[in-house]
Amino acid sequence: MTQIRINKFLSESGITSRRKSEELVLQGRVTVNGKVISDLAFKVDSDKDKVFLDGEKISPKKHLYFLLNKPKGLVTTTNDEKNRKTVVDLIQTKEKIFPVGRLDYDTTGAIILTNDGDFSNLLTHPKHNVPRIYEVKIDRPLLEEDKEKFLHGVFIKGLKGKFKQVIFPLKNNRKYVSVTAVEGRNHFVKNMFGALGYTVLSLNRKSFAGIEADIPIGQYRVLRKEEISGVIENYGQ
Ligand code: URA
Known about the structure:
The chain has six helices and 17 strands. By secondary structure, it is an alpha+beta fold. It has three domains: 3-58, RNA-binding S4 domain (Structural Genomics Hypothetical 15.5 Kd Protein In mrcA-pckA Intergenic Region, Chain A, Roll); 65-126 and 214-235, Pseudouridine synthase I, catalytic domain, N-terminal subdomain (Alpha-Beta Plaits, 2-Layer Sandwich); 131-208, 2-Layer Sandwich (Alpha-Beta Plaits), CATH 3.30.70.1560. The strands form four sheets. Strands 7, 8, 9, 10, 13, 14, 15, 16 and 17 form a nine-stranded mixed beta sheet that branches. Strands 3-2-5-6 form a four-stranded antiparallel beta sheet, with no helix packed on it. It has a two-stranded antiparallel sheet with strand order 1-4. The structure holds uracil (URA). Uracil (URA) binds at residues 103-104, 107, 187-190, 203.
């Protein structure tokens, strides 16, 4: 008999994170053996209890973790209202997986896909300061003074944003810059450069949480055990 807390059972079923699972319980959407559960301390016997969410049976799944080197021309959602191809379409699995965070349609590089909501939350929550390293091509040479502005912070949509590190020139060319960001606001890198009057011509995420896109564009691999435990050790509380 394996007893696990109701929120852990839900998150291990790939529904959502443990924290959001608690909300589902409190909303009265979860039943165990036909009875609505409202006690967050409730433990499920995963061998025999029948758990339903909104009337649909759920059961814990094995967690899956993939690293994709995203090509251009894909969206990072699970389905797209315009019917464009998504990053999920590239991964061969029958399990329901989703991308961790987002990359723009025209951005290439490292993106993780998983069915583990807690792992995804760990990587995307701003309080964990997870580093994302981008190689950026801009429309004109970067000025030294603008590098300093990026490091001290510039305002995008009224909120200050910073790069943790700015390295340039790359390839002996001041239009090629490597930046490290620790936040994932939408279009963050493009908006940071835009705030100082630069246009981003291409954007490639070299690594996410220290995990490098070390495979050819368009290909994916399974994350190694030590990469998963490294993320949990480095960014878990
Ligand atoms: N910042 C952007 O502007 N776009 C991305 O795809 C990722 C970070």
